[in-house]
Recover the amino acids of this structure.
């Protein structure tokens, strides 16, 4: 019950006029970022982060997390009205959202999407409220080997669960880890991987990488594929909103199932994108109206939206309690915590309870603010997309590069962001996952420190990673996940051999 | 575009380029880290140990990607055709020019030139509108960043001449 008391204290911290104004501003900026192609949640938070360097951490995290919620909602808006996902995690929403909007039910589709998203987020926050302090208390027992095992587990679950090619995921993770080591070594003071270039002494900022990979890279893909906005007229009628809201309880099963999938994928670093696709696939498979999916079936909106937001929210749980983020955006937020001088992980709960519980309380409020605002402002934001891309595109470019510059006031970062942009385009075209690279860049230093301290503790023998049951279990799970794609491929081959090619075609279809 | 089918970049070529690029990066990382010492120093692993093995893993995984590209990628799949290349260039070239301008002339001048040029040349907007949008944007960023958040942006010779710092 002490969690409830702490949560109430958190509400007391959050409920000031300044914080509520930041929340509204964050949500509005978030919706804008979510609506505009090329500016997603991770990128938007990276752009805003340099402006919060001097802010109080509580105010800063409220602004940035509110932006995150807003971006998640904004992404769904364009999926439904324009058939263009503003965020990768709202791709699955286009399958039924756009057909439903096209058949004249835009208000209903949007309302269902927002309300089920809010339900998913609410369940995610409740999970955080109930579990976070227990996990943090448990994690207080962790030493360096356990921490390294946890980071290893986070990396391995990307390889095992992300669905992308495992070797491509490994390359992406490895590059992120390597970029994190560039510059001054915190333990020995040596300069590493600078190749004699002075501009590399300060290191490669993960913020510049995110802005390049997600922002510029995404824009290049969007422009190259030829963007067309064939929008459905967005006029929100209050009566239709209420009618749609009344139908929501009908989808209780989809809501519950998708929340569970979302929470699981958010806590393990599967991320919101994988969660929404998985939830959509399962909903279609088990629905009695399977043939209606893809033609405007409401359950096809409810399922991915709930899972998307449940995953997006619960990704904050491992970030807060363990210091291991569950999504690209929470990785950026984690980097922000370190920049503000906070030490993410279990000690944060004892050292800065006002920050932790203020943040959790702000998640409840932020989502309510976000649903309300997004319903009121959809027509306005939809109008932005009617501005021709000859104006919007270059404006987004300018914003991205200004963001890259404000990270460290370094002109070299501008070229770096451009290079990351080109790399991001190539990675997108060849299906390399980008989120692992960002996660590895943020966690790289901590993972390496944990590894080196473990090695010092054990005097160089690697057996310290199975020296006690806890660390051995963590490593065993990580190794299983790492081997998962191989095991899966073997199993599929056995099945195909036994049942003929029809079985593999069946697998591909899902 | 049925008239120009041979002009395209195949998926296989893109996969090979990506794999060779990451292979080169992996080798560069491992080679760079070797110089910092790979092994046991006084009281702990030397600073190059961790990045060295990361580089080795990246290089090894890149070789796997290269091998898989030849085995798995559909030979007829494309990533870029002539139309897409033109669209990419129309967006990418001004973008790089903007970065070059920002580095030499400062952000405000570069923003005005970039927005006005793209709107006028590619968007075919009237000159007054292009100028209004570009100057308005620069003014907006000046107020928000320099005045409001006190975050200075990169300035060039023009600002120095006018005495704005």
């Amino acid at each position: 019950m002490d969690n409830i008391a702490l949560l109430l204290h958190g509400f007391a911290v959050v409920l000031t006029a300044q914080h509520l104004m930041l929340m509204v501003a964050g949500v509005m900026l978030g919706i804008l970022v979510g609506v505009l192609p090329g500016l997603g949640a991770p990128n938007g938070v990276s752009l805003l982060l340099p402006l919060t360097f001097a802010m109080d951490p509580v105010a800063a995290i409220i602004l940035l997390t509110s932006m995150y919620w807003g971006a998640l909602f904004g992404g769904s808006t364009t999926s439904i009205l324009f058939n263009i996902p503003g965020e990768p995690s709202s791709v699955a929403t286009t399958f039924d959202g756009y057909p439903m909007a096209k058949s004249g039910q835009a208000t209903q589709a949007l309302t269902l999407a927002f309300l089920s998203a809010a339900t998913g987020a609410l369940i995610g926050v409740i999970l955080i409220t109930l579990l976070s302090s227990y996990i943090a208390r448990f994690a207080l027992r962790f030493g360096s080997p356990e921490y390294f095992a946890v980071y290893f587990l986070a990396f391995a679950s990307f390889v095992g669960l992300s669905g992308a090619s495992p070797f491509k995921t490994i390359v992406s993770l490895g590059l992120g880890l390597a970029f994190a080591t560039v510059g001054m070594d915190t333990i020995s003071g040596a300069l590493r991987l600078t190749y004699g270039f002075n501009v590399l002494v300060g290191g490669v900022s993960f913020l510049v990488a995110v802005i390049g990979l997600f922002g510029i890279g995404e824009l290049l893909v969007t422009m190259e594929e030829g963007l067309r906005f064939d929008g459905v007229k967005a006029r929100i009628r209050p009566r239709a909103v209420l009618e749609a809201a009344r139908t929501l309880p009908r989808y209780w099963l989809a809501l519950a199932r998708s929340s569970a999938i979302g929470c699981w994928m958010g806590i393990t670093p599967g991320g919101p994108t994988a969660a929404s696709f998985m939830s959509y696939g399962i909903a279609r498979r088990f629905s009695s109206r399977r043939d209606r999916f893809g033609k405007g079936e409401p359950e096809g909106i409810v399922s991915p939206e709930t899972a998307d937001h449940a995953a997006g929210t619960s990704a904050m749980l491992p970030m807060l309690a363990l210091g291991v983020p569950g999504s690209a955006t929470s990785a950026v937020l984690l980097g922000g915590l370190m920049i503000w001088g906070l030490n993410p992980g279990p000690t944060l709960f004892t050292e800065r309870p006002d920050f932790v519980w203020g943040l959790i309380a702000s998640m409840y409020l932020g989502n309510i603010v976000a649903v309300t605002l997004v319903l009121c402002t959809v027509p306005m934001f939809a109008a932005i997309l009617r501005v021709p891309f000859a104006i919007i595109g270059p404006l987004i470019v300018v914003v991205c590069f200004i963001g890259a510059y404000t990270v460290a006031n370094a002109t070299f970062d501008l070229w770096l962001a451009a290079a990351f942009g080109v790399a991001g385009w190539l990675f997108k075209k060849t299906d390399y996952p980008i989120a692992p690279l960002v996660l590895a860049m943020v966690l790289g230093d901590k993972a390496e420190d944990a590894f080196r301290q473990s090695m010092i503790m054990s005097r160089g023998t690697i057996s310290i990673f199975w020296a006690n049951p806890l660390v051995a279990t963590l490593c065993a799970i990580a190794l299983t996940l790492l081997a998962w794609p191989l095991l899966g491929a073997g199993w599929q081959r056995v099945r195909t051999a036994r049942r003929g090619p029809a079985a593999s075609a069946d697998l591909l279809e899902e | 575009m049925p008239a120009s089918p041979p002009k395209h970049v195949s998926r296989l070529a893109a996969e090979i380029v990506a794999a060779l690029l990451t292979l080169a990066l992996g080798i560069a990382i491992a080679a760079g880290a070797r110089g910092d010492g790979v092994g046991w120093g006084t009281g702990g692993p030397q600073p190059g140990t961790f990045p060295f093995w990361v580089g080795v893993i990246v290089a090894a995984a890149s070789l796997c990607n290269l091998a898989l590209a030849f085995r798995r990628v559909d030979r007829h799949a494309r990533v870029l055709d002539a139309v897409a290349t033109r669209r990419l260039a129309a967006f990418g070239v001004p973008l790089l020019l903007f970065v070059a301008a920002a580095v030499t002339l400062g952000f405000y001048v570069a923003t005005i030139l970039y927005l006005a040029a793209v709107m006028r040349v590619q968007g075919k907007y009237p000159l007054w509108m292009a100028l209004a949008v570009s100057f308005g944007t620069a003014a907006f960023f000046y107020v928000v960043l320099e005045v409001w958040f006190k975050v200075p942006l990169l300035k060039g010779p023009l600002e120095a001449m006018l005495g704005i710092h």
